[in-house]
Amino acid sequence: MASLCMNSTVPLSPSSHPRNNTTLSSSSSLLVDNNNNIHSNSLKTTSSNLKPIVVIGHPPTFVSAPGRTILAVGDLHGDLKQARYALEMAGVLSSDGQDLWTGGENVLIQLGDILDRGEDEIAILSLLRSLDKQAKSKGGAVFQVNGNHETMNVEGDFRYVDSGGFDECSDFVEYINNSEDDWEETFTGWVDVSETWKEDRTKSRSHWGPWNLVKRQKGVIARSILFRPGGPLACELARHGVALKVNDWVFCHGGLLPHHVAYGLERMNKEVSEWMRDPSENDSTIQIPFIATRGYDSVVWNRLYSRDSPDLMDYEAKQVCSVLEETLQAVDAKAMVVGHTPQTIGVNCKYNCSIWRVDVGMSSGVLNSRPEVLEIIDDKARVIRSKTDRYSELQAAAYT
């Protein structure tokens, strides 16, 4: 039974340890090396006879997914409706409202910042976890990388939390306490019932000011319990790293620089994950990568990779290109895919398409723009812009 007491000083963590969730199918085999990394050779193949997906690292850091189509989705910021629309466009989510995986053996990657600015954050996390389970049974996979807003919430930084986000946390705690299922079943089931809970909450909402204040305080307490290091949702986030390399592509929320690669992607992922999962391990050795990845050097990132500043001179652009090239060579990747900064022109690439920027600000809490998805097939990248005009050749690149 999954339960969580609002008055408890230490919340119950998910019953399934993150290490147990690395398995990609019931018939998988796991190898743990001397560095305590998990090597999973586990995805079921179908009639297409694709080679299995191999995952290295805990949380996943290096993935070999031979022959798979890779689909990358940017920042979602608590907007379940837009998230579903993006996933339907990507061809991995059924359009009948049943939230079924339709991606077959494809690989879906979400680039972080699911939290903040919207009221359906936990529902989106629940949906992606459910799709992950379904994808594994079909030979596909779903991966997430944590963004700076995930890290901020585990820190207890709630500056950007929508009022509905606090309400969802209160409802989710009550939902957990009422559930008799284990954590995984409870968590993946939330997306199916969250809308009903929201409707009931709206109908019963009191306009009496002091009571609303009490409800807000309750929501803050609930969020603190759920997301603090060792909390149930912090442990969920700990299942994901801050950087992920799939085939010859590297995915991260805000961008990688050479010193991140030099520190070690597996090491960085592992230590940040440990900090999220176990407060007793929150010591100085974990603060180093935590600080390094807190905003992914967001100031440098915004200047280097993301913003098309009119005062960026040719000389500076060459320097940026040099830094990017050095980073890609260090991680042995052909291109980098990032989110973090909304692109008002839609998904686009820069520096000879060695970096793709996929955050389009689709959440109603950001720009409420039309969702877009990056598709990578045989190292050729295309942008999926709409259902009717599935592919846009305006931004396309082939990598050899």
UniProtKB/TrEMBL annotation:
Residues 69-342 form the Calcineurin-like phosphoesterase domain. Residues 1-28 are annotated as: Disordered. Signal peptide: none annotated. InterPro entries: Calcineurin-like_PHP, Metallo-depent_PP-like, MPP_Shelphs. Residues 1-19 have a biased composition (Polar residues). This is Calcineurin-like metallo-phosphoesterase superfamily protein. The gene is 11408062. It holds the Pfam family Metallophos. GO terms for molecular function: hydrolase activity.
